[in-house]
């Protein structure tokens, strides 16, 4: 799929996933603007249904299923936002959903997935073990596996964030996005390439877990031993052959690697200035802006706040 055809898919999704997916606000932040010297706008994806942009991609993927797939259901793997998004999208479209998750995942996140109607399968091991188990189960059953990023129909759903940004503030100079597998920044970047070509895409990573960044530097997808990070939503490897790799190569203009201390500072700032308790990945994007602010002094920038934090103890520990 070319960037032009992906844009067409994003434009179609922008209309088709309404009213299920919300148009989230783009809020000007006087406090962060004064701090950085930029005109800072916050794209409030933590106010999306299930608290994350992931609902956009899941909704788009499931709406495009053929009748047999809708009847038989789908399989996903997740410890949190993606699983909740697929579960809710499945419930709204009457598509059965099974989510594989590590047994060690936070109980509050597992409970949230169950409450949204998905069948939950717990797997011994980490997130990768859950993903491998889910993929094998999908192949055995002949069911679609809903990837959080390695699927152009999912990327098209995430790209509706970019469509909204272009409508809400078409004169943006830069957009800061936290990057895991690259689905969100690929979708936003594709939309803005057509609608707001002056907006630079800035990819932001925790330095402890930056597989896509290392892959972009190497010119190929590489394996990286990632460390612990507050941004667990962006942690994890990039699948060989992931469709997002070439998209990230084409669309990301600048990169920001941020430390755990910088993420913690950003989360604290968001809590103090905006009164929002957000997850680590949202802190990564703001930390990227704080680091790169001199480059954009006096310019209009957006920070995509990609999810709210539902684990109170973890948030308190992060900002303490």
Automatic annotation (TrEMBL):
Residue intervals of the Tryptophan synthase beta chain-like PALP domain: 18-307
Cross-referenced Pfam families: PALP (PF00291)
Cofactor(s) required for function per UniProt: pyridoxal 5'-phosphate
Highest taxon above the source species: Bacteria
Keywords annotated in UniProt: Lyase, Pyridoxal phosphate
InterPro entries: Ser/Thr_Dehydratase (IPR050147), Ser/Thr_deHydtase_PyrdxlP-BS (IPR000634), TrpB-like_PALP (IPR001926), TrpB-like_PALP_sf (IPR036052)
TM helices/strands, residue ranges: none
Gene3D superfamilies linked to this entry: 3.40.50.1100
Record CDD domains: Thr-dehyd
NCBIfam families reported in the protein's UniProt record: PRK06815.1
Protein name from the UniProt record: Threonine/serine dehydratase
Organism: Chromobacterium aquaticum
Phylogenetic placement of the source organism: Bacteria, Pseudomonadati, Pseudomonadota, Betaproteobacteria, Neisseriales
């Amino acid at each position: 799929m070319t960037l032009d055809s992906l844009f067409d898919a994003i434009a179609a999704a922008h209309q088709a996933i309404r009213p299920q997916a919300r148009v989230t606000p783009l809020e000007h932040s006087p406090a962060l603007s004064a701090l950085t010297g930029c005109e800072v706008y916050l794209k409030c994806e933590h106010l999306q249904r299930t608290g994350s942009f992931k609902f956009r991609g899941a909704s788009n993927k499931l709406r495009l299923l053929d009748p047999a797939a809708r009847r038989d259901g789908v399989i996903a793997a997740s410890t949190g936002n993606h699983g909740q998004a697929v579960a809710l999208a499945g419930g709204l479209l009457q598509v059965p959903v099974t989510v594989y998750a590590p047994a060690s995942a936070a109980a509050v996140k597992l409970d949230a997935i169950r409450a949204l109607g998905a069948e939950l399968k717990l797997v011994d091991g980490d997130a990768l073990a859950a993903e491998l188990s889910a993929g094998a189960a999908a192949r055995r059953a002949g069911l679609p596996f809903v990837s959080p990023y390695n699927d152009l129909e999912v990327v098209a759903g995430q790209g509706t964030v970019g469509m909204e940004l272009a409508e809400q503030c078409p004169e943006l100079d830069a957009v800061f996005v936290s990057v895991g597998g690259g689905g969100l920044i690929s979708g936003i970047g594709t939309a803005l390439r057509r609608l707001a070509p002056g907006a630079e895409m800035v990819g932001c990573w925790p330095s402890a877990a930056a597989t896509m960044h290392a892959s972009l530097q190497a010119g190929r997808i590489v394996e990286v031993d990632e460390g612990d990070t507050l941004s667990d939503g962006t942690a994890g490897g990039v699948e060989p052959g992931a469709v997002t790799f070439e998209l990230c190569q084409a669309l990301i203009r600048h990169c920001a690697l941020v430390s755990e201390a910088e993420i913690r500072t950003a989360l604290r700032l968001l809590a103090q200035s905006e009164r929002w308790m957000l997850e680590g990945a949202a802190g990564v994007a703001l930390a990227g802006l704080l680091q790169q602010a001199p480059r954009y002094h006096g310019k209009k920038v957006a920070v995509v706040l990609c999810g709210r934090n539902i684990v109170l103890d973890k948030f308190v520990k992060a900002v303490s």
